[in-house]
Amino acid sequence: MIPEPGTLIALYTTMLRIRKTEExxxxxxxxxxxxxxxxxxxxxxxxxxTGICANLNDADFVFSSHRSHGHFxxxxxxxxxxxxxxxxKATGSSKGRGGSMHLSExxxxxxxxxxIVAGTISTAAGAAYAFKLRGLKNVSVTFFGDGATNEGVFYxxxxxxxxxxxxxxxxxxxxxxxxxxxxxxxLGDTDIRKKAEAFGMSSYRIDGNNVIEVYETAAQAVxxxxxxxxxxxxxxxxxxxxxxxxxxxxxxxxxxxQRELDSWKNRCPVKRIEKWLIxxxxxxxxxxxxxxxxxxxxxxxxxxxxxxxxxxxKEDLLLNVYKG
Amino acid sequence: xxxLKFGDAINEALRQMMEEDERVFLIGQGxxxxxxVGATTTGxxxxxxPERVNDSPVSENGVTGLAVGAALAxxxxxxxxxxxxxxxYAMDPIANQAANWHYMFGxxxxxxxxxxxxxxxxxxxxxxxxxxxxxxxAHIPGLKxxxxxxxxxxxxxxxxxxxxxxxxxxxxxxxxxxxxxxxPEEMYSVPISKAVIRKExxxxxxxxxxxxxxxxxxAAGILENDEIHAEVIDLRTAKPMDEAMVLASVSKTGxxxxxxxxxxxxxxxxxxxxxxxxxxxxxxxxxxKRVTLPDAPAPASAVLEKEYFPxxxxxxxxxxxxxxx
Lengths: 324, 325
Description:
The structure holds 2 protein chains of 2 kinds. By secondary structure, chain A is of the alpha/beta class.
């Protein structure tokens, strides 16, 4: 079922917010010394986080990876706090202790993101276990890449999730590359969905650049989870426009071809929903422009906030090693 | 007062905490098994059901990570590893995730969980069924490591560990499980980070952990026959260590043996020695002496095991040497 117009506009706005943020960050990363922490951009993958998170509420958990910006923003994390975190500021979402890879906003259902590949797959299952024990209808989601499916904990957790019928949703963002390595060079069988199916889990392989398809698939998965019907695995096929880390596309390094990149840019998830909204009469060109202007202003505002914010105090270095 | 064995004291701590706090649950391999972990979990599944007493598949990494996530979502998990050797598989969720979480996200969520690792050695079990890895975890910022040496502390420290807001390694030894002493029936906690003097003395200090406390006390008893009065301190917590008590006792006696059941190089004994050397070198009448495992894997053959594991005899001879200079 096609989502309501309001939902569709919200999906578009979120995707655009991620797009404009990441474009701005790519620009800033080209300025030497401007941003120091490693930044893994989400350009090209916006539809996945957006379509999934639009089905969740603040009490649901989203765990993420090193490529965390899209998930953070789609789940309602503060753009200002995220920018400040990337700039290592005291006002950042992790008070300057985490950087781009470690964003958290618990009140929005964002417990954290891990820089260890596959680092939050089991954690998300654990949150789901807690929800189940506590008798809550909440859902726990983890986002990870195709590379993470080569980690042993992925398989351990698929089994645990089915065994305990957990309200957890595994989102594999298959962007065809595990850092520099093509999926063909690191997976014997590139049909990732089948790996989950082998554990007896409901599993889907979808077009991750089609936000409506992502949204609808997630809606089913979330419904299943809330109804106590167990976990779901979604392989969302997508593509990252830039390299594993930083603002370059790695074509000059021979890691992939311009032709491949161009073919995926022609399948741009943002343009796709934009065209759809216009052709279905949901938004006009002026309406699109208005959203774009708003989002660009938000990004600028967040950037100013980040730059003007204070750094953490040196004397606070050892705060929070332990709680209490 | 009624007496309890070490294993039963753990059982009682788990039962009382699970009764008092519905956030507490137990997960791990063998928690419903009649033999995996002695009497420590007997009857718990009947009382609390299989969701709160989850006998898990052999997936140390996944299960420990699951416990981390459950802690982030409001639970207080106790994840049990019947042999520490298998905990290498769980290094990522313990060291990368649980230990860092509170700091890495600026002090927002914490990971209130207990990782219960059992040292289960001897009886010709060889190198992969023998390891005492407390030092490895004590190295990692954000973790606490407790090591009870008697039934009273087993109950009190497990309760304290569960009540703590941080990831706590609860490390015990199967060799302790039959030890029996008076244990109060009511709930109580033994403070983390506090050592205790098990025997007073002025001639030398023996700082010991876990099973080595038993050996140290036996050695100290024999030393009394030689008119040597050893002070025996049970460190109880490897991290954060009770440095004040260590330094006070060594300042008083001027001689110290550190008796630890782990390996020597970069072992827990090395850390204790460094704390003494950094703070009170001028108070030492003799060099610091360590009684540890040699830097070698555990052997199988009982003849070799006898050589491998230090005991009261090892400590006694070390003390005699220390006193005679």
